[in-house]
Amino acid sequence: MATAAPDSGDEIRDRIRNVLQGQKQDTVTVLSSLLNVQDELHYLPDEAIEETAAFVKSTINEVWSVASFYTNFRFTPPGDHTLEVCWGPSCHVMGAQKILKSVQEELGISREGETEDGKVTLEYNTCLGACAQAPVIAVDHIHMGRITPQHATSIARELQSR
Amino acid sequence: MAVAFDELRQRADARWQDLTAGPKAWIRVGGGVSGEAAGCDAVIEAFEKAIADTGAEAFVTRVGMLGLCYAEPLVDIAMPGGPRVYYANVEPDQVAKILDSHVVRGQPDKSLAFACSARPDGNGIDGITPLKDLPDIAAQTRIVTRNFGRIDPTDLLQYIANGGYAGLDKALESMSPDQVLEEVKDSGLRGRGGAAFPTGLKWSFLSGSSAPVKYILCNAEEGDPGAFNDKAILESDPHTLLEGLILAGYATGATKGFIFIRQGHNEPINLSRKAVTDAYEVGLLGEHILGSEFSYDAEVVLTGDSYVAGEETALMEAIEGKRAQPRYRPPFPAQAGLWQKPSNINNVKSLAFVPQIIARGSEWFKSIGTEKSTGTALVCLSGNIQRPGLYEVPMGLTIRQVLEDVGGGAPNGKTIKVIQTGGPLGGVLGEEAFDVEIDFDAMSAAGAILGAGGIIVGDEDVSVVDLTRALIAFNQFEACGKCFPCRLGTTHMLETLDRVCMNRANANDFELMERIGNSMKVGSLCGHGQLGYNPILSAVKYFKDEFDASIQDHAGAVGHFPDGSMITPTRTRP
Ligand SMILES: Cc1cc2nc3c(=O)[nH]c(=O)nc-3n(C[C@H](O)[C@H](O)[C@H](O)COP(=O)(O)O)c2cc1C
Ligand code: FES
Predict the structure, then answer these.
(1) How far, in Å, is the centroid of ligand 2 from the Cα of B451?
(2) Distance between CA atoms of B476 and B474, rounded to whole angstroms?
(3) Of A7, B86, B333, B346, which residue is least crowded by CB atoms under 10 Å?
(4) Which residue's CA is the closest to the ligand 1 atom numbered 5?
């Protein structure tokens, strides 16, 4: 049983429970629950793991094992905007490394994650699925193809000021 | 029973008549994720605004992809009863001009037109290239992709108006499940998900089981970078997959079908969900399909990001909501699969061929392609190629024909040096292999696989060492962690390749990688480890000089990242 949590924790638990109980598809599992919660909150706080375990009558360990396996799950809130850069082989051949470099430089970070001000999350993607338009990025999940390093830099700059 | 389908067909024909010969011009804009990446949504918005501004008699539909991704945003306009005129690489600021000339004044804008389809009388429009004469269209035999870019993927009736569900209707009306199974066996259809296993034979393992609950699992995970044909089917014509999924259920006596897609691919997810909902609504799914004795359900299920989730037993774990790690075999899926029920796994493309095989017969299907690889290949061209896109070509074309005739060769006057096929567990081929036929067995013999159909093209400036490292970095990143040879082997292999990329390789590093690769092959639990060495094996076969140069004190500098600065992900699975 959860101990008394501060208001915000209660609020988040309510939201999580609503999502868990509102799952419309036939197949409801640990994974479907986590996917739906992350769709709502954009990350999985500890409460999400606990509530999911209670909802599917599983253990916290079991739910963690699933959450830690799939690389789309994250455990801290993302930035206000997400910039995904594909490094798959089609994009690699078309200059993905240059796109990655220019975006990193503009955002001032050297790996995946959030900028210092928490505005932008940079993610690497193994294939964004629009390989014929390589190199491909996605800005807040909208795909953009035939990207140049200059274009990527200006998008990264614009996202930071948005 | 057939009455219900006849009624559907009548409604569908009326709908199609309205769309093509109604009072308004039909403007179709190619969508899907490729269209989105090319900027189709701004073009659609511009058309909608221009129509509202001018009151032009036209309506806009976001269709799937025609396959000519290089021409996107791709728009086609048909005046009532007229041919379709295609406009390529349309910019939003050209839209008002195109609409004014083509729709308002009835004059296709020849300065901007890219191609045009033929009218029923066979004539097109003077001064505009007939679509069928484009080299990349002429080379194709479009079976699975026949409706791509033509119909609204959200509209079941448009699928039916174009021959959809006729195969299912025929099967339920006049064929026993065994006859459907025999037809698929006879057709020679082989799986398009990677292993090229005969589809009919696989189905017979499931049909042999008398269990009351059995499943068909459609694998739409499509984790291979460079392959986008499964998503394209779901984005462009989702009912063609659904009809195949239902036919597979009928042939094998299964009770439910699952379509398994990775989260985040919203367009294929939403469109396949809508297809399932619409099919239930008209009695194509559920109890007594089309009034027959056959009942069958379908559901779209999502997975998280994991490449190994596409492996057939890991896929079942993922549907059950667990970590997508492969199971030990036996028992095989047809004995105890999803929730321990007998199950059959097929790729999207494999199932999408079935409606046409049933409607037109196995003899027709076998007449296309080669003896052991019947039918067509859905080839995804990307990378350094003039015309990247999705092309459905008969098996038996040579790789060179696909690269040159269909793809137009490398851009900017360069030459094609390397191709990567069959995904990250496939191979890297050099020019000597370009006369090999697109055929499952011929390509395996050359050291690559056709796999799901992705062909990534690299020109003379591409470093094969770097490309190989990117593939192995993928395999390392995606190792699921369950079995030791793959988990450790991919990491060890990547470290060794890093030395190669940094020109610090030892002479025996290649032997070391071979030893690691062989251990992975014999010791790994699934194809991820068993095949994970293939990119290196094939790359070294065709580009030995480039690898040798990296050995200390040799020429060096074959890669573009000798300082080890190639950026790849850092997360690993705990
Ligand atoms: C690591 C790994 C990943 C795979 N990913 C996919 C995939 O994304 N899509 C797919 O159809 N098959 C994939 N496969 C192959 C499947 O295991 C299976 O053979 C295939 O879905 C069967 O369908 P088919 O007989 O119609 O080809 C993968 C195999 C392995 C070993
Ligand atoms: S490899 Fe970049 S979108 Fe597929």
Answers:
(1) 17
(2) 5
(3) A7
(4) B310
Task: For this complex, say whether ipTM is above 0.90.
Answer: yes
Tell me yes or no: is domain B376-459 CATH 3.10.20.600.
Answer: yes
CA-CA distances (angstroms) from residue B444 to B298, B331, B437? 35, 28, 11
pLDDT tens digits, B88-97? 999 999 999 9
- At the topology level, CATH places domain B164-366 in Rossmann fold (3.40.50)
With beta carbons less than 8 A apart as the criterion, state whether B225 and B378 touch: no
| Helix residue ranges, H only, B332-439 | 348-360, 362-366, 399-401
- CA dist B226 → B67, B202, B458 (Å): 14, 27, 12
- Residue-range domain boundaries for chain A: 9-69, 81-161
Distance separating alpha carbons of residues B22 and B207, to the nearest angstrom: 46
Determine the average pLDDT of the residues in B151-176: 98
* Contact by Cβ (8 Å): B427, B418: no
Question: Does residue B222 line the site of ligand 1, with CB under 6 A?
Answer: yes
Q: Is the pLDDT of residue B569 over 50?
A: yes
In this predicted structure, which of A37-41, A98-102, B9-13, B120-124 has the lowest mean pLDDT? B120-124
Supply the pLDDT for residue B558. Answer: 74
Asked if B446 contacts B537 with a C-beta cutoff of 8 angstroms, the reply is no
The CATH number assigned to the domain with range A81-161 reads 3.40.30.10
CATH class of the domain at B16-133: alpha beta
Local structure of B238: helix, strand or coil: helix
Task: Identify whether the C-beta of residue B190 lies closer than 8 Å to the C-beta of residue B47.
Answer: no
Question: Is the pLDDT confidence value at B532 over 50?
Answer: yes
What is the spatial distance between Cα B462 and Cα A97, in angstroms, rounded to a whole number? 12
**Do residues B309 and B573 lie in contact, with contact meaning Cβ atoms separated by under 8 Å?**
no
Domain coordinates in residue numbering, chain B: 16-133, 164-366, 376-459, 464-567
pLDDT digits (tens, 9 = 90+) for B253-287: 999 999 999 999 999 999 999 999 999 999 999 99
- Rounded mean pLDDT of chain B? 95
Is residue A5 very low, low, confident or very high in pLDDT (cuts 50, 70, 90)?
very low
| Percent of chain B at pLDDT exceeding 90 | 91
How many angstroms does the Cα of residue B214 sit away from the middle of ligand 2?
A: 35
Write the burial class of residue B344 (CB in 10 Å: 0-12 exposed, 13-18 middle, 19+ buried): buried
Chain segment B137-163, per-residue pLDDT in tens? 999 999 999 999 999 999 999 999 999
Q: Given this model, what pLDDT does residue A3 score?
A: 43
Pairwise CA distance, residues B314 & B217, whole Å? 12
Residue ranges of A 32-61 with Cβ closer than 8 A to chain B: 32-35, 56
Residues 57-116 of A with CB under 8 A from B: 65-66, 68-73, 86-94, 97, 100-101, 104, 111-112
In angstroms, what separates the C-alpha of B47 from chain A's closest C-alpha?
20
In the β-sheet with B84-87, what is the strand arrangement from edge to edge? B58-63, B25-30, B75-78, B84-87, B113-116
Token pair 């299964």 is at which residue?
A: B254
pTM score:
0.97
Give contacts of B 50-89 with A, CB under 8 A.
69-70, 72
pLDDT at B124: 80
| Residue B459 dihedral angles phi and psi, to the nearest 5° | -90, -170
| B320 chain-A contacts, CB cut-off 8 A | 29
Is B227–A131 a contact, with Cβ atoms under 8 angstroms apart?
yes
In this structure, CATH architecture of domain B464-567: Up-down Bundle (1.20)
pLDDT in tens, B547-567: 988 876 666 667 889 888 999
